[in-house]
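dumping this here before i forget
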Amino acid sequence: MTSHEIDYKIYGNDIQLVEIELDPNETVIAEAGAMSYMEEGIAFDTKMGDGSEPEKGLFGKLLSAGSRLLTGESLFLTHFTHRGHGKAKVAFAAPYPGTIMPIDLSKSGGSLIVQKDGFLCAALGTKVSITFNQKLGAALFGGEGFILQKLQGDGKAFVHAGGTVIEKELNNQTLRVDTGCVVAFEEGIEFSVEKAGGLKSMFFGGEGIFLATLKGTGKVWLQSMPIRKLIKAISPAGENRSKGASSILGDFLED
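structure:
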């Protein structure tokens, strides 16, 4: 299904929103609860699915919706369609301080892998599904990197990241980052989770026991402030934590 063509404008600096301008009968899909405001003529409908495969039956819709539960998202997506004349706008807000990234999927090979809570909204025709990282390390230890979202299509998609976004282009190169700092990457990139180093650096380095490794050719988007780091920074308990306690092991021991 060819994606609808949508125009947009992003407002704000630290806490952003994206305003989508729709022509008559154009539709944008979004996470439930993301909408900030909409103009007259916009109608919305909550559906069990992204609408990219209209022929999909009830069982397929249930399977797709059920898979979204694994990412911690709502069972449903909301479809906003302009039913009036002229142009009308609908806006979607980021869930926490950070940056909204507009991505043209047609320029990223038609597919993008995104952190499990990164998807905000997209043009109708975009397929939103999940993908599993097959690496054992990611499954057992890199909680942010085991279950990921896949966005497929040829239109605009909007992804939310915490803090500042850095875009890097890898050319048969390797990049190692904190597991929570990975926002999105193209399918030409291999993603895995590996040990951070020796025992001393793993337990006392403050960078966590495991690091994400991105390898290959393609674009990678990183965020400076993952939501878990933001929560730690504003939590009263965070003031008394040692540097080592900020690692994944520290979280585990606290639980």
